[in-house]
């Protein structure tokens, strides 16, 4: 195996990149100028030194606490619970949410050995209890594991005095009914609202 094959194999291990895409990336890098390659290699080799989880919410940041947790203009009574650190930037990009975040670090998935004890739930309970949280928005993915985790959190927070809500799910804006699967349609009917 030569250096190009090794690089292609490394790229193909990344999520969402198959062998063909990995080969295209590797071949593209061979055509790039050396300064770009050196900068790219430096960024990769220092990534885990520079980016760390926020000590409060668990989102990726260069400085802990992160800019979101440090921002005193945000609504400090609302906490959005997400599965992974990258979910924070996805929600932030909508510019609709102005509260705080809490990253679980995964979802309950017994088949993969992921039980509630492996999630960042103890810190969630501490934050709800000690930070004056009035609403917890559960923003786990609409999957069996995400729904199981959401239900577990909802039961965990019973009696805490804060409202527990879940992001709505259903038909996307601009979507056609004929392309919707049964689960999406079922969720859309259950979550329907008046207008």
Give an overview of the whole structure.
- The structure is a single chain.
- The protein is of the alpha/beta class and 195 residues long.
- It has eight helices and six strands, in the order αααββαβαβαβαβα.
- The protein has helices spanning 3-12, 19-31, 34-50, 67-70, 85-92, 121-130, 144-156, 182-190, and strands at residues 52-53, 60-61, 75-82, 99-103, 135-138, 163-166.
- Strands 4-3-5-6 form a four-stranded parallel sheet. A two-stranded antiparallel ribbon has the order 1-2.
- β5, α7 (144-156) and β6 form a beta-alpha-beta unit.
- α1 crosses α2.
- The longest helix is centred in the first third of the chain and has 17 residues, at 34-50.
- It is globular.
- The termini are far apart.
In short:
By secondary structure, this protein is an alpha/beta fold. The chain has eight helices and six strands; from the N terminus they run αααββαβαβαβαβα.
Summed over residues and divided by their number, the pLDDT gives a mean of 92
Calculate Rg over CA atoms.
21 Å
- How many strand elements? 6
Order of helices and strands: HHHEEHEHEHEHEH
Structural class by sheet pairing and helices = alpha/beta
The parts where pLDDT drops under 50 for at least 5 residues are none
Distance between the termini: 62 Å
**Annotation field: number of helices:** 8
């Amino acid at each position: 195996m030569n250096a190009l094959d090794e690089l292609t194999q490394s790229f193909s291990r990344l999520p969402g990149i198959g062998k063909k895409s990995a080969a295209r990336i590797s071949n593209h890098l061979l055509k790039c100028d050396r300064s770009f390659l050196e900068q790219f290699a430096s960024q990769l080799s220092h990534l885990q030194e520079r980016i760390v989880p926020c000590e409060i919410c668990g989102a990726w940041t260069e400085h802990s606490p992160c800019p979101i947790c440090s921002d005193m203009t945000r609504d400090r009574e609302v906490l959005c619970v997400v599965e992974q650190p990258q979910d924070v930037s996805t929600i932030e990009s909508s510019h609709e949410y102005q509260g705080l975040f809490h990253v679980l670090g995964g979802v309950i998935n017994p088949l993969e050995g992921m039980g509630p004890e492996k999630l960042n739930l103890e810190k969630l309970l501490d934050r709800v209890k000690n930070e004056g949280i009035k609403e917890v928005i559960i923003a786990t993915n609409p999957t069996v594991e995400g729904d199981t985790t959401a239900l577990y959190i909802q039961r965990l927070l019973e009696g805490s005095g804060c409202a527990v809500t879940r992001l709505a799910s259903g038909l996307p804006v601009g979507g056609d009914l004929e392309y919707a699967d049964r689960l999406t349609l079922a969720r859309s009917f259950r979550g329907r609202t008046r207008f």
